[in-house]
Amino acid sequence: MLSRASAAYARISAAHAWFRAFRRTRPFWGGVWMVAGGWTVLKFSLSSVQLIVSTGFGGVAGYLVGGGMILCGLIPLAAPRQRYTFGLIGCVLAVVSLVVSNLGGFLLGMALGVLGGSMTVGWGARRPRAARAAGGVPEAVEG
Q1: Burial class (CB in 10 A: 0-12, 13-18, 19+), 71
Q2: Is the pTM of this model over 0.85?
């Protein structure tokens, strides 16, 4: 019984270590906030399909902007070197959502998108320990 519990604890500990390493080598929180903002914009722009077809681009724009924000939040998690491009695109889409989708998800989706985009752009990889201890400024470490 004890060996099962210790094996389960070892698996949980290994999963936690993997997730911690994943989170620290990517703009994780910026992506999370941008996905939350995109989901909020999508949630508040949901309408019936008949209404969207009859209104044309105005009805589809909320879906495009919200989906674009979600993609701009997920792509930097997979490819951290693209954080500037998709962080800026995500910020622009968040501001555009103010006009095309119920005040940007009643301002909440827009605020979350701008916060996530700015966190994604401002994220920097962690410096190596030796460089931090020496006080030097190393070149950027990209993962």
Answers
A1: middle
A2: no
